[in-house]
Write a structure and sequence with these properties.
The protein is of the alpha+beta class. It has helices at residues 46-57, 62-76, 125-129, 140-151, 157-170, 176-184, 186-191, 213-225, 228-231, 233-245, 252-257, 284-295, 300-303, 308-327; strands spanning 9-13, 22-23, 30-31, 39-43, 87-92, 98-103, 172-173, 209-210, 261-263, 266-270, 273-277. Strands 5-6-9 form a 3-stranded antiparallel sheet, with helices on one face. Helix 2 runs antiparallel to helix 4 and helix 2 runs parallel beside helix 5 (157-170). The radius of gyration is 21 Å and the shape is globular. The model is unreliable at 1-20 (pLDDT under 50).
């Protein structure tokens, strides 16, 4: 599922002052803003935020909370937070030490540069967006394992996955927005799956319970066996079986050999501020620093917020940054 609607939720730890805007129509509180003095968890779903906050209360650090949140989002935010994909982590310790973890999906070793082209060499867009050929070797689970091994303070892997397993097994009530999104995607669920999934339903509505018992089993395997619970054994067998059935490329060796990579972050400076961001293969860190450095010589405050000159400057800078991104 593609990422479209994002619910941003702020939960706080040791709150000193809060200005909260709460959405009352949801089956759980959705707080839009808050202020904290010690720690904060910000995620795309309030239930995942609550999970992260609980981990902090148990004595976990930011990485522990991030791992628990990642697996919780795999349950409560399936259109973007799933364990079938990958991502990036930028990390900064209190002593100033920085690191970046690249757990982005990778192409199968059987992938070719022309796999998304037709016989005339023209791109077949849907092939790279939907279906079995669009999937890369998932990196999320290995990334969370590596983050845990290096930076966990709680040292309790099962405790970090327990909330996600409960959410998947027992289910959670969905909002009207989530119901609408599930209804809109029913055609794709049917087209790209050989059997019904937890998301198949004639008509979802606000307050319905979304249970994902198969996902709960997968998360339990990861909880008990670590990365081997996903990249080997029964889960790996099911992934490879599905790939073969849908003419996909990912095989056992692709899964077993996947490894997230620790990298040096991109570091830049903007008007006295130090910027720490993600390096390649993400374009975000490089693009961000380039954009800031290009606009640094100009007095945006003097131009005025959303003035034609300020907007023009930013648009022209962005055009050049994204042209460089596409070229290099």
């Amino acid at each position: 599922m593609k990422s479209t609607n994002i619910l941003i939720f702020f939960l706080i730890f040791k709150c000193i002052s809060c200005s909260q805007k709460v959405v009352e129509s949801a089956p759980y509180p959705i707080t839009k803003d808050a202020v904290a003095d010690s720690a904060m968890v910000v995620t795309a779903h309030p239930l995942a935020t609550s999970v992260g906050l609980d981990i902090l209360r148990q004595g976990g650090n930011a990485v522990d909370a991030a791992i628990a949140v990642q697996f919780a989002l795999a349950v409560v935010y399936p259109n973007a937070g799933n364990i079938g994909g990958g991502g990036f982590m930028v990390y900064r310790q209190a002593n100033g030490e920085v690191a970046a973890l690249d757990f982005r999906e990778k192409a199968s070793r059987h992938a070719t540069k022309d796999m998304y082209l037709d016989s005339l060499g023209n791109p077949v867009t849907d092939k790279s967006l939907f279906g079995h050929l669009a999937a890369g070797v998932p990196g999320t689970v290995d990334g969370m394992v590596k983050a845990f091994e290096k930076h966990s303070q709680l040292k309790n892997w099962k405790a970090l996955l327990a909330p996600a397993i409960t959410l998947a097994e027992e289910g959670f009530q969905i909002t009207a927005r989530e119901a609408n999104h599930l209804n809109e995607e029913q055609g794709k669920f049917t087209k790209y799956n050989r059997a019904n999934t937890a998301f198949h339903k004639t008509q979802w509505k606000a307050g319905d319970l979304l249970q994902q018992k198969e996902l709960a089993k997968t998360l339990l395997a990861i909880s008990e066996r670590g990365r081997a619970g996903f990249y080997e054994g029964e889960t790996a067998r099911l992934i490879v079986e599905e790939m073969k059935a849908g003419n996909g490329l990912i095989d056992f060796e692709d899964l077993k050999s996947y490894s997230a990579v620790w990298r040096r972050p991109v570091v830049g400076h903007y008007r006295g501020h130090k910027i720490i961001s993600m390096p390649a293969p993400s374009s975000g860190g490089i693009a961000l620093v380039q954009l800031l450095k290009m606009t640094e010589p100009y007095n945006l405050k003097e131009m005025g917020f959303q003035s034609p000159s300020a907007v023009h400057l930013m648009v022209e800078a962005e055009r050049r940054v994204f042209a460089d991104r596409a070229t290099f």
